[in-house]
Design brief:
- This protein is α+β, with helices and mostly antiparallel strands and 360 residues long.
- The chain folds into 2 domains: 181 residues, no CATH class; 132 residues, no CATH class.
- The chain is 31% helix and 23% strand.
- Helix 6 packs across helix 9, helix 6 packs across helix 11 and helix 7 packs across helix 9.
- The termini are far apart.
- The structure holds iron/sulfur cluster (2 copies).
């Protein structure tokens, strides 16, 4: 199997129909002004005109998933006892996610280090991750909120993907990234792609050039620790935030969850649902004490986790793919780039004995 094939634009619908015949196919679809990932409908063309409003994270990490069912029955031999029958609910089937952008699929590499690691193996996540293939679209040009290049990525980053589609004349050069991805390319609708290799390389370089110069985030982990107790700084950074949580729910690298049991009579389900660290309730303890009582504490945690604590645990890898969704979708105009830059400025100024030099 060739590792790069040419997919003509005219064959896209037929190829998607082919993929849908053997997998659950998930594509970006327009819903009002938003573009969100959902089941493929052959009568509606996927919307790949721009990066989706929500990332594809729910395809592997659903917003709400049933992980166990249980039934309670009275022990007929001893009515003082109740017998509980539990049944684990594991994900099944295989799926292909078509049309995510590189930042959206790269988000799963952040999850992999947490959910599929020697220290912790999350069977629900791993089962879905291993049975989900990503056919990702390289970007032609960066948007104003994109900063994938700040975090070591770029508009044609294939990490987390199985196939990368690079736009070329009349279609895409489909680059097989994984063995399973290369298998998806063994369709008569695709033809050998060597002659498009030069054009694809130029398209990737052009997209990279559309990004402005990258900030150097190497000092960020230490700087965020240096300003950890500086609540005047965090109060200022969080002043506009209304704690809506849009930034976390739309983030391809946020992975906090909650576990609840939903009972109906003598039976019920154990559910895992996304949680949101920007909410007051996230760390509220049963005693009423809350270790993160203000939005300043919560924003500090969100930024600190992505740019300092996570890199500290995972060999320097930043837990942000630079997609800019939190910037584009924040109703209050909070910009995570400016906060990280301001923290670095603040820490540097503090080392130099002055506290005024600062970005935001
Ligand atoms: S989207 Fe903006 S306003 Fe909403 S919680 Fe995030 S930072 Fe705050
Ligand atoms: S923190 Fe913002 S820019 Fe970074 S991955 Fe999440 S939504 Fe994207």
């Amino acid at each position: 199997m060739e590792s790069s094939m040419y997919l003509p634009e005219a064959s896209l619908d037929a190829w998607l129909a082919e993929l849908a015949s053997s997998h659950e196919l998930i594509v970006p679809r327009r819903e009002g002004d938003a573009i969100v990932f959902g089941p493929y409908d052959p009568s509606v063309s996927p919307d790949i005109s721009r990066d989706a409003t929500a990332p594809p994270k729910s395809s592997v990490f659903p917003a709400c998933e049933e992980i166990m069912r249980y039934t309670s029955v009275k022990d007929t031999d001893d009515l003082s006892k109740t017998l509980v029958h539990m049944e684990e609910v594991m994900p099944s089937g295989s799926r292909v996610v078509f049309g995510a952008r590189p930042c959206g699929t790269r988000g799963f590499t952040v999850y992999d280090r947490v959910f599929d690691a020697p220290a912790m193996h999350d069977p629900y996540y791993v089962a879905r991750r291993q049975s989900t293939l990503f056919v990702t679209l390289a970007c032609s040009e960066a948007g104003s909120a994109c900063f994938c290049h700040w975090v070591g990525s770029g508009p044609a980053d294939a990490s987390g993907s199985d196939v990368l589609l690079v736009p070329v004349k009349g279609g895409w050069l489909a680059e097989g990234v994984s063995d399973k991805g290369r298998e998806l390319l063994s369709s008569p609708l695709l033809t050998p792609g060597e002659k498009y290799a030069g054009e694809a390389k130029a398209a990737k370089a052009k997209a990279m050039e559309s990004l402005d110069s990258a900030a150097d985030l190497k000092p960020a982990p230490e700087a965020l620790l240096a300003v950890f107790d500086d609540m005047e700084f965090w109060n200022r950074m969080s002043a506009k935030c209304i704690s809506c949580g849009a930034c976390t729910y739309l983030c391809p690298t946020c992975y906090c969850f909650n576990i609840t049991d939903e009972n109906k009579g003598m039976e019920g389900s154990r559910l895992r649902t996304w949680d949101n660290c920007m909410s007051f309730q996230f760390t509220l303890e049963a005693s009423g004490h809350n270790p993160r009582p203000t939005k300043a504490h919560r924003l500090k945690n969100r930024v600190g986790h992505k740019f300092s604590y996570y890199p500290g645990l995972h060999g320097g890898a930043i837990a942000c793919c630079g997609c800019g969704r939190c910037i584009k979708s924040c109703p209050a105009g909070v910009d995570i780039r400016q906060i990280v830059l301001a923290a670095m400025d603040r820490a540097k100024a503090s080392r130099q004995g002055n506290t005024t030099g600062e970005h935001a």
